[in-house]
Amino acid sequence: MFTGIIQAVGTVVSLDARGGDARLVVDARALDLADVAIGDSIAVAGVCLTVVAIDGARWAADVSAETLARTTLGTLVAGVGVNLEKALRLADRLGGHLVSGHVDGVGAVLGIDDDGASQRWRFRVPRALARYIAVKGSICVDGTSLTVNEVGDADFGVTLIPHTLAVTTFGARRVGDAVNIEVDLMARYAERLAGAGADPG
């Protein structure tokens, strides 16, 4: 589990095909790997990956064909920045919201407009995901926990403050860029419970 509070922006070193899968190597840069061990989880652009190798500030993960097909990771190239977050510990503060690192779909940046020192961003999402997004609810975009301002049939809007723009990859994003979307876990559980009906027992 994660919180959606980005701890560092890393740099992709390589993404090498291995059959249908790939080996991703990331330079963690400012992310402290001292407490990271083989088998631990790190979210890369919102995607939970398992650490399989560590070499100084660099670490590697194997990315399955399923993950490559359902997220933006398959489009990564050397030199690109990626949001990083180590897995949540039970003693940590939950500054964002509960994030699983299991991406629900790929969206795209629709618009970016200045709003004082902040910016208002709109994202397109697959229509099937829009029903899980609520005004003032939480959503995870490229691993970043954001608060929803508005929702349309297949899009939503948020406000990004200067701090978020400075410490995540959003500062380098442009209209049309693809992004990983994870809806709030609570919305999915609520739908499941609502559709379960009364217990016949």
Features:
single chain; 201 residues; Elongation Factor Tu (Ef-tu), domain 3; 2 domains; 6-stranded antiparallel barrel; 4 helices; 12 strands; 14% helix; globular; riboflavin synthase activity; Riboflavin synthase; riboflavin biosynthesis; ATP_synth_asu-like_sf; EC 2.5.1.9
Describe the secondary-structure layout.
Elements: E1 8-18, E2 21-27, E3 41-44, E4 47-55, E5 58-63, H1 65-70, E6 81-86, E7 105-115, E8 118-124, H2 127-130, E9 138-141, E10 144-151, E11 155-160, H3 162-167, E12 178-183, H4 185-196
Antiparallel strand pairs: 1-2, 1-6, 2-5, 3-4, 3-6, 4-5, 7-8, 7-12, 8-11, 9-10, 9-12, 10-11
Catalytic activity: 2 6,7-dimethyl-8-(1-D-ribityl)lumazine + H(+) = 5-amino-6-(D-ribitylamino)uracil + riboflavin
InterPro entries: ATP_synth_asu-like_sf, Lumazine-bd, Lumazine-bd_dom, Riboflavin_synthase-like_b-brl
Enzyme class: transferase
